[in-house]
Amino acid sequence: GEILLSLHPRIKKTRAKVVIECPEDLTMDTYPGALYQIVVNLVMNSLVHAFDDDTEGQIRIEVQRQDDLVSLEYRDNGKGMPEDIRRRVFEPFFTTRRGSGGSGLGLHIVYNLATQILRGTVSCDSELGLGTSFRFLIPRIAPAGAETAEAKRNGG
Q1: Contact 141, 29 (CB under 8 A)
Q2: Least CB-packed of 78, 92, 129, 153 within 10 Å?
Q3: Secondary structure element (H or E) that encloses residue 110, with its range
Q4: Would you say residue 33 lies in a domain?
């Protein structure tokens, strides 16, 4: 809820809708700042790349518990991307919008947060005309030692 509230001004300027499905009893002992940044970067990426201004796009975030892991699947029904771009989305400084202010760091940051801070995995699938999905598997309880990376990232 909080993440969507912070993104509301940006989402409101588009015709995109965001739907979140998450069991109410799901709990995690992890780094909320990292999860927040992942979702914000993914939503912003969809708003910039997946949908034209007049597109009624949909973003779905589905969260489920899988034993000691949490599965987070993020999907948009936007333009999708060709395989040569999909293969490179997590590379630093890779962008298809260099002249439009894109730094090419958004999905690289997502990858690093998911794998280094949250100690999980992330994969990306996409099909032209059908949209893009990111699937995360994250430990429900953050492993010891990850907090030092989070503290360094936050200047602590």
Answers
A1: yes
A2: 129
A3: helix 106-112
A4: yes
Q: How many CB atoms lie within 10 A of CB 132?
A: 25
> How many angstroms separate the CA atoms of 90 and 85, rounded?
10
pTM of the model: 0.86
The domain in which residue 77 lies consists of 2-144
37 within a domain of the structure (yes/no)? yes
- pLDDT tens-digit map of 26-49: 999 999 999 999 999 999 899 888
Chain segment 121-132, per-residue pLDDT in tens: 999 999 999 999
Going by DSSP bridges, is the β-strand pair 17-21/121-127 parallel, antiparallel, or unpaired? unpaired
Q: How many domains, the chain?
A: 1
- Name the nearest CA neighbour of 78 among 54, 44, 51: 51
